[in-house]
Design brief:
4-stranded parallel β-sheet, globular, disordered C terminus, 4 strands, alpha/beta, Rossmann fold
């Protein structure tokens, strides 16, 4: 089982994972922290993505994905992390610690943690950025999303 950060789940839904991420995700079951669903709902509410958590397409996409609840233990661990980020990222990371599941993320702040278990994607962060010709904005796309005048995630294929 893997714990997917919000952006990884959205990249998977839109088909924009790296080849290493696709390979890794194809070998394991997926899970997400409940806060990921809230983040996606808020992004949709603000018009930043076209993925609606209330849509039948989203329900089908999530059918095989485990959702870990936000419980006291996850909340407690979110206050004991060795990095500081937005609360949603901290809850996602704490979910991996509490449930002993490797996290899949591109978030540089989280990736510096010595406490969070990570899935081995097969590519280090600098190589990912160099090979895909992306900059640090890709890693922080979610954190800066409110500054973006255009939607960041393309519409899901309705077919």
């Amino acid at each position: 089982m893997l714990n997917l950060d919000t952006h990884i789940l959205l990249f998977a839904m839109q088909g924009s994972l790296t080849s290493d991420e696709k390979k890794l995700l194809s070998t394991e079951n997926w899970g997400v922290s409940a806060i990921v669903l809230w983040e996606i709902a808020k992004l949709f509410q603000h018009g930043r993505i076209s993925i609606d958590v209330g849509s039948p397409e989203f329900a089908r996409s999530m059918a095989g994905i485990h959702v870990w609840p936000l419980d006291v233990e996850v909340c407690r661990w979110s206050t004991k992390l060795d990095f500081s980020s937005d609360p949603a990222d901290e809850l996602v990371a704490a979910t991996s610690i509490v449930h002993g599941v490797p996290l899949v993320t591109r978030d540089a702040k989280i990736l510096r943690s010595k406490l969070v278990p990570f899935a081995k994607v097969g590519t280090d962060l600098n190589e990912l950025l160099r090979d895909r010709n992306e900059n640090a904005a890709t890693l922080a796309w979610f954190h800066r999303i409110s500054l973006s005048p255009e939607p960041v995630v393309e519409p899901m294929d309705a077919s």
